UniProtKB/TrEMBL annotation:
Residues 1-20, 54-74 are annotated as: Disordered. Pfam families: SutA-RBD. It comes from Denitrificimonas caeni. This is Transcriptional regulator SutA RNAP-binding domain-containing protein. Residues 1-10 have a biased composition (Polar residues). It comes from the Bacteria. Residues 14-47 form the Transcriptional regulator SutA RNAP-binding domain.
Amino acid sequence: MRIKGSSTRTKPAEAVTSRTTLEEQTAAFLKKGGEIEEVPRGISGQQQVSYFRRSTPATRKPAEIPGAKPAVKS
């Protein structure tokens, strides 16, 4: 008889456990002198980078050849 894999999976941690752990970690962080910064809604921590901009000779990096020694500028 074959045993199904789904019955052997462990159950995910309960939200109560996760919430308690998060509260403990936050309290320890604040006790060490850490500060929590409130970020306004709609603001992202990521930098504004356009992935679709056109590359130019000034912005391109020279090709790197695996195993080759990097050129040293003097």
